[in-house]
Amino acid sequence: MKIPYGGDYNPEQWPRAVWEDDYRLFDAAGVDTLTVGVFTWGLTQPSYDKYDFAVLDGIVSRAVDGGRKICLATGTGAHPAWLAASHPEVTRVDFEGRKHRYGARHNSCPSSPVYRRLSTEIARRIAERYAGNPAIIAWHVGNEYGGACYCPICAAGFQEWLQKRYGSLEALNEAWYTTFWSHTFSDWSQIEPPSALTEHWRGPDHTAFQGITLDYQRFMSDALLANFCDEKAAIREFDSSTPVTTNFMGLYRPIDYHRWAAHLDFASWDNYPPDDRSAARMALAHDLMRGLKGGAPFWLMEQTPSVTACRDVNPLKRPGVMRLWSWQAVAHGADAVLFFQMRAGRGASEKYHGAVIGHSGRSDTRVFQEVAALGAELSALGSVTLGARTPARVALLFDWDSWWALEISDGPSRLVRYLDVVTAYHRALWTLGVDLDVVPVTASLTDYDVVVAPALHMLKGDLAERLSAVAARGGTVVSTFLSGRVDEDDNAFLSDVPGPLAGLFGIRIDEWDARDRSHVNPVAIGAATFPARLIFELVIPEGATVVGTYTGDFYTGTAAVTRNDHGQGQAWYVGTALDQAGVTSVLRPILAAHDLLGPLADLPDVETATRVAPDGTRILFVLNHGPSPAPLPAMTGIDLLTGAAPPARLAPNGVLVLRAS
Amino acid sequence: MKIPYGGDYNPEQWPRAVWEDDYRLFDAAGVDTLTVGVFTWGLTQPSYDKYDFAVLDGIVSRAVDGGRKICLATGTGAHPAWLAASHPEVTRVDFEGRKHRYGARHNSCPSSPVYRRLSTEIARRIAERYAGNPAIIAWHVGNEYGGACYCPICAAGFQEWLQKRYGSLEALNEAWYTTFWSHTFSDWSQIEPPSALTEHWRGPDHTAFQGITLDYQRFMSDALLANFCDEKAAIREFDSSTPVTTNFMGLYRPIDYHRWAAHLDFASWDNYPPDDRSAARMALAHDLMRGLKGGAPFWLMEQTPSVTACRDVNPLKRPGVMRLWSWQAVAHGADAVLFFQMRAGRGASEKYHGAVIGHSGRSDTRVFQEVAALGAELSALGSVTLGARTPARVALLFDWDSWWALEISDGPSRLVRYLDVVTAYHRALWTLGVDLDVVPVTASLTDYDVVVAPALHMLKGDLAERLSAVAARGGTVVSTFLSGRVDEDDNAFLSDVPGPLAGLFGIRIDEWDARDRSHVNPVAIGAATFPARLIFELVIPEGATVVGTYTGDFYTGTAAVTRNDHGQGQAWYVGTALDQAGVTSVLRPILAAHDLLGPLADLPDVETATRVAPDGTRILFVLNHGPSPAPLPAMTGIDLLTGAAPPARLAPNGVLVLRAS
Amino acid sequence: MKIPYGGDYNPEQWPRAVWEDDYRLFDAAGVDTLTVGVFTWGLTQPSYDKYDFAVLDGIVSRAVDGGRKICLATGTGAHPAWLAASHPEVTRVDFEGRKHRYGARHNSCPSSPVYRRLSTEIARRIAERYAGNPAIIAWHVGNEYGGACYCPICAAGFQEWLQKRYGSLEALNEAWYTTFWSHTFSDWSQIEPPSALTEHWRGPDHTAFQGITLDYQRFMSDALLANFCDEKAAIREFDSSTPVTTNFMGLYRPIDYHRWAAHLDFASWDNYPPDDRSAARMALAHDLMRGLKGGAPFWLMEQTPSVTACRDVNPLKRPGVMRLWSWQAVAHGADAVLFFQMRAGRGASEKYHGAVIGHSGRSDTRVFQEVAALGAELSALGSVTLGARTPARVALLFDWDSWWALEISDGPSRLVRYLDVVTAYHRALWTLGVDLDVVPVTASLTDYDVVVAPALHMLKGDLAERLSAVAARGGTVVSTFLSGRVDEDDNAFLSDVPGPLAGLFGIRIDEWDARDRSHVNPVAIGAATFPARLIFELVIPEGATVVGTYTGDFYTGTAAVTRNDHGQGQAWYVGTALDQAGVTSVLRPILAAHDLLGPLADLPDVETATRVAPDGTRILFVLNHGPSPAPLPAMTGIDLLTGAAPPARLAPNGVLVLRAS
């Protein structure tokens, strides 16, 4: 038992002779796991009434013969050309109202009955054929589900979804506030998908009716989930136990992964960070993925060993970076480390995407050597981290509904982006070295000492009560500007801002200013001042203590940051977008008060993360993301990668996997 | 009798209990006038053959019971969902050729027979029901008419409009210069709306045939006007006297408000300036609106008390600014001061738009307090300004045809924007404190000493003669680059530039240079030099005196600014885009020569404006838009807001309403 | 015999009286050649079954009577309105999938049978009518062919074109690498034009399947070529000898002019450079055009005498620039100098486009005077340059397939643009004063000492062997990053980068980095360092000598520039985008070694070019593009423009036409 290592492998693109080269190189690199079949629908069903598994049989057999474990895909990452030609309904209508024809991938209308029937059928046949093969350790359904469709079939599906949600048009009209702009619907059939041809006026985020757009996002996420569930159910007809997953995309807005999570047996995701300064962001995404299944380990399903292809500029991962980021994934809960892709394709849009084996088939490249070295490390590590969990006392709330509602809102500011706020608060926690869980707003908060809820725009269910309970029992709650504004239907609360949270924070907000990015109003917190930008809520204390004040404009001296005693704990509110140092300065004393500062909190480039194995073994990962060697304090334990005690300095890109001694 | 004060009120969005809160707060704020029913079509006609006025009855009754005056809307600001569903023809086809379905507002095809019939009918029924109610002081038709439709019904309407305009295809082909690019039309039915699918190549301003595009703009303005006239005629069936208006949008390009003006009983408009440095721009817009009806007072139909919602960034009006801008409107001719909106809606795209009463319903907010304070001031002021007119001796020509022709022109420069030129010349006049009228090119010019015609690209009718007459009798005419270029059909004059104006200005122009914004060619005027940009006409004097010369490039020393004696007066020509100081330096001596400099012309941030009441009372408004207190010279009169003599200093955002003593 | 001088003339836009003015001014300007009829289709065929040549007869007669030579167009630069109305198939479907209706120009679907039949017929009738008129010196087919259509007729045409190219779907699937993303086509009818509705995801350059998009570009270029060939064949029915051309657009990506060239009797093009710093770029375009027909002279079919109209900003050609650029064209092989246009149109989108005769009809304008002066010079020059050829020993490879393949590639960098690379290498050669040919990759290379192949992304046929042969016999080959990557189908070579060129250059490349424009990695070459940007190939010498090394990042000290001895010559490889000085520093010693540095290589603003007349007369053109007088070394010969010996200094915009004495 060890961490599965390998990745996406498409031998159907190559003659058999190349396969033999591949397996020789897999051996050299310690590759034990192959994801196969992700785009094989056209291969396994070459026409409407013909199925042909000869090639896939060969691929599976060769893997079995080679002693590999298999993550077997259903192949529905893209539909075949014949299907689009014979059943045009399977292609999507886009946001601009344009009916697409055959091409690309992610191209299936999720509501199309033909698509649903045939994608289910191919999954069923594959499961029927390969279930029971002991090499198969997971089923991989679809691929990077995403996008949206606005076709008439989806419109009907939306209407049906709305009937289930609202029961009556009266309820729907009230939820959508349709009296505004004479929008009352008198028949379900009048409801259109919100698009450039209906409610939207400057792209997907600019809508006349937020409620309609918000519900369509929810519907489309559910519609795509139904596709996943279709295929999973078909697999379960033949295999009751092998886990089923699909590869997520981390911080991906269109799909509410929290709503999907219950339907996956384990989470997995593809890590393609925007740039090489993304260590904190990747940590957030890993924690979000781990949080999908209540803290259970996930798979790193894809990462590039070297370069991406689809970006405008595709920089190369420097030496050591692929290893560092692989270990970061493990540190945050990954129980598999997989690449896209094992061998570089010759043609089409990913021919320049990095691969373990390049076009020349060499094993003496830097990239192959690094892959092989990591393979050896993972083999040496063995099973110690498998199933380990993160012992977090801090929760960061993450909510797709708030993400959507905030970013489709007209006013106060389009410049406030949900992820910017969340990542600022996460980065502060990450820099301060605390282990944290990223959880949905429905998660139990009873185990956390600190709960951070940035830009909690929409407040649903009993969350206000549960947050109050955190403070009441001695915990600390932190929230920010633009929280507590709207209910589940995106209708404003008819009370003081921040709505049901006003009491917890001991404040009210009557007005707020928004300004361009260039406008700065420094906020004084104690002896320090921090630039604040974009939005400035004029916070009126109603019991809270003023911690930070604006130093400019007509509201100079009024509250920007407050702290309210609540029960045995506290609730902090930050009414403006402080810069990163400002956010960190707010969070540091809070963590300190709960004794939650990380062991290396003063080394901002050095990340720490803890996992506790099922047998109780506690493992501390230490990763140096900085450009310089980091001096380490005396630390106990043994580095599982070297078998030695931890060194006094950790090299750039260096990794320690310390088992408590 | 006093200035009506209040604004848009949508109680149909609320339960009755809230209405009572509203009226209590209206009392507290001195609100006496409510605009109701702007988006009630779906409410009053819930299906094709059903009308239901119960809610609107209640709204009107409650207002009457509360002693309010009513501006009653026909409710056609948006059409109902059932109408789009049952009659898809009512929705528009956009510039990209996309047929829209139900959504948003401003969504009706103006040419649709069903839309025209039903919108007229709802106006008729509302007029029938409510005409004679003494609380109704105005009818409000539609809402912010605008946009454009490119559907087949509009295409047919366009062809019909063209037949009326041109009489024959021969005349049309000549006007459109269709011999160019083999474009001769041999049948009216061949003519398409100019769009992204026909003549346009990079958006609405880039057309292969300016004549076609120009005529479509004229047609569409007329088509929307017909919708207004439909409803007005229906109202007039039941009410022969109460004035009818619709709310304009100030400097709004798509609609030629001059062509509409004759059909309105009074002008009204919605003032949403782009930023808080817009004092001069708002003054221009107010003067333009006043000029629509020959100087008669207009209504400020909408302004926000605090923030907008639809901008990317929606800054807050600082304390005092709402009051200052309200008085500015009155200073320029407003006889009503109204807000959008009285109570903030809960949902959809304007839930964050500012309102007199916010979501929490408080009266102790800063915004409510300022609204109430202004209400008290207006009540105290009483009727003195009602019906007052502006005694202007300066006219600024404003022409939608020139606006359109200039901005759809290929060459010389897309960077020259009509409003930039107009606002530069207006700002200079405004800074210099002169009262001015903004008038159409058809206006009588006989009462003006100075006529300024910036970027008078298109020269129509007898305007050249009338401008010459101004100079001949001792007045001064000022024009600029890109004037006198084309005739009514956008065909170049076959004579020296500036066409029929060449004689008046005593110049000719053979060539012109255009350069990027970063390129500066300083112009020397007397001892000073001013940066000039974008376009450089090489002005050849043919009798004119050279006032300013270029100091750079191969045309160094040639004329950029000229003055020509004509009769007893003068004609000035400015051949390049001088910076603001340059424009002001040209206009200052002209105003001085006519003894027209304002009393505070040396205080650039302090605006003055005069109104003369029907009884001859002369009122001088003084408004400080600057950040600092302004020292005032000794001024006679009494400040109607305080009852005191004018102070020695005027605070920032300060307002004086001085009645000559 | 002299250089034809004149240009596009559209008297059909004017009454006859104006024609007489025109001819008087033509006489004054030395205009002897008129291009007529470019947009006359609607005039000569006013309806489906009616042809009317009365006006065109008059135009031709008047030109003949005036003693002018005629370049007679078929008039198909735009189709008539009645054709689009009666046969909607003739209009295009655009990349976004939108069916266009009548408007603009370049508006015909090249595959439409009706369009093909009628455009051929009008060409046939014009040829029939005017063939044999001795004034006609050339036929001008269509106008600036370009753009693309994505309609169903083109889809069928594409499928047919593919069947011819590939023979079988098996071959097509392999070429397009369709196993990737399950794209296997099982019927030709499944193949769609690649567009925003099928394979593309962010505009025309972002495709999921490069092979499909690449073939569509090839197909569309061929489809438009077929239109040209249709008309040419019709002309040839009546005129077997007068040369036929169409006006190209220089560095125009959508059409592979190399594939077209064989079908033209001579090349001609329209020179509208992007700005007034385009001397080198124009030289490249001239040389490319000359290279189309193996070095034979071409026509400068259009240039503006003063300004363009369609740009956002249309700057004026400074005094002397029109003359300088006209002579530059001649220096590079032009045997005609023609303007667009002779008289400025009154209306539509080119009314502000520069013309020899402006709207006022004056002859005392600067522009007219300069045109007349050049006319006199050309008359004085006579026939000496006619038919002269350029004696080049340097070849620059230019390849539309590489252009397309590079710019539609996903990865490594969208910031690398083919023309940027080509123009950098061309500019270096141009600055160094060497005469060069710009040739297709299929050209014979046996006559060249130096062959420069920038960004030779796609390597086709036996080119690798022919390049090796250049070096083998003592020549020098230069290539750059991103060369030798893909085969004719855009599939990566399964060998070391740069593929079949690896041996010639003695290198291999395993990995490459790409970075934003702001990122610089200086390259050390000898004692100098040069900034390098965008892409950094890590070059591993396999026999080559390291000439330049990176000085930054983890690959510091590794090879960026290499030189490999091959046979008696050398092959240089530049693995990164050096700045202009860096490129020049690489090429200077290479030219020097072959004794190919120009006589004025140290005067960067002074261009030289040589032509050798059929009688052996050698003419050296010297052109000063700089802002200052250039000191000239002692040069022999006589300046044909002055009859004097060459001066010691050449004024800005100055031109010498030196005949060796």
Automatic annotation (TrEMBL), chains A, B, C:
Pfam families linked to this entry: Glyco_hydro_42, Glyco_hydro_42C, Glyco_hydro_42M
Domain Glycoside hydrolase family 42 N-terminal: 8-380
UniProt xrefs under CDD domains: A4_beta-galactosidase_middle_domain (cd03143)
Record key words, sorted: Glycosidase, Hydrolase
Domain Beta-galactosidase C-terminal: from-to ranges: 605-659
EC number: 3.2.1.23
Organism in which the protein naturally occurs: Actinoplanes couchii
Top-level taxon: Bacteria
Family: Belongs to the glycosyl hydrolase 42 family.
Residues covered by the Beta-galactosidase trimerisation domain: 392-596
SUPFAM superfamilies, A to Z: (Trans)glycosidases, Class I glutamine amidotransferase-like
Catalytic reaction equation(s): Hydrolysis of terminal non-reducing beta-D-galactose residues in beta-D-galactosides
Protein name: Beta-galactosidase
